[in-house]
Amino acid sequence: MASAATDLAGIGTALESASAAAAAHTTGLVAAAQDEVSIAIATLFGAHGQQYQTLSAQAAAFHQQFVQTLTGNGASYAMAESAAAQPLQSLLDVINSPFVTATGRPLIGNGANGAPGTGQNGGAGGWLLGNGGAGGSGTSTAGADGGAGGAG
C-alpha cells in the first residue's frame, strides 16, 4: 500500500505541474484582434481556462486527501496484520511443538528452503498441512545436482 501511495503522490505531482504550466496559456488569453468578436472569444476561452484551473485545484486537493488516507490506512493495516499474526504464531507453536519434538516435522507449516549453492535438501513440510521446502541450488561444481525438495 505504501508503494501505491507513493505512486499516486507522484501522479498528483505530475498533474499539478502540468496544470500550473498550462495556467498562463489558458487563463490570460489575448484577443487576436481588437474587434468585438475576437475579444468575446478570448474572454470566453479565458473563462473556461479559469474554470479548469478551479476544478484542477479541487481535484488536486481531493487527490492529496486520498493519498493521505491510503497512506494512513496502509499503516493501520500493517499494524492489524502484525497484531493478528502474533497470537496465531504462538498458537501454532503450541500445536507444532510435540510433533517437532517427536518427528522433526511440524503438524502444520511449510519446510525451510535449502541454502542456495549448497545442494542442501529442502526441509520437510507439515504432516497435516504444508509444503516441503525447495532444495538448494547445486554447488559450483559443474554437473552437480541440486538438493531434493522436502517431503510434504
TrEMBL record:
Top-rank taxon of the source lineage equals: Bacteria
The parts of the chain that form a coiled coil are: none
Family matches, as Gene3D superfamilies: HP0062-like domain (1.10.287.850)
The segment(s) forming the PE domain are: 1-83
List the Pfam families hit by this protein, alphabetically: PE (PF00934)
The protein's name is: PE domain-containing protein
Name the species this protein comes from. Answer: Mycobacterium asiaticum
